[in-house]
Design goal:
The protein is mainly α and 157 residues long. It has one domain: lambda repressor-like DNA-binding domains (434 Repressor (Amino-terminal Domain)). Helix content is 60%, strand content 0%. It contains nine helices and no strands. Helix 2 packs antiparallel against helix 6. The longest helix is centred in the middle third of the chain and has 15 residues.
Length: 157
């Protein structure tokens, strides 16, 4: 968090908007990371991590994207995205990049990821419903069945 006596060092909102405009053309600039470093998206809740990971995985699948494709679109590391989908890691910078790639609200994704206070009651209710449905008993698709069978053979069962 920024110390109040150092407030003169905090960039203006106009400056942040200019940096945000540049983010699309320069992969090394990350407004999400800057926002996190400035304490504008403080980590307030770890409970959203798993829900967020499942959400990212399902939206990626719905869009017909592989992990590699989404990582390329969002300009993030494939391994980091895999950790997110497994509910292990969520960082503000990555949430902002995924929001841009998937054309979703960065603020709402930050809330879903547990990186910002959950202030939207509709989003809270939807997240609870989403979480309750995560462990579906639906029959596996042929592709999922094939992939599971292949890995089970490799495991030796």
């Amino acid at each position: 968090m920024i110390n109040p006596k150092d407030a003169k060092l905090v960039p203006s909102e106009t400056w942040l908007q200019r940096v945000a405009a540049e983010e699309d053309s320069v992969a090394s600039i990350s407004v999400g990371g800057l926002v996190n470093r400035l304490g504008m998206y403080p980590k307030v809740d770890e409970s959203g991590t798993g829900i967020f990971g499942e959400f990212v995985k399902l939206i990626r699948r719905k869009e017909g994207l592989s992990v590699d494709q989404l990582a390329l679109m969002a300009r993030v590391d494939v391994e980091e995205l895999k950790l997110v989908e497994r509910g292990i890691v969520v960082q503000a910078e990555l949430v902002m990049k995924l929001a841009g790639a998937l054309r979703l609200s960065p603020d709402k994704l930050a809330q879903l990821a547990g990186l910002a206070p959950s202030v939207d009651p509709d989003l809270q209710a939807a997240a609870r419903r989403f979480e309750s449905r995560l462990h579906s008993t639906t029959v596996l698709s042929p592709l999922e069945e094939s992939a599971l069978s292949e890995i089970m053979q490799s495991i030796g069962t």
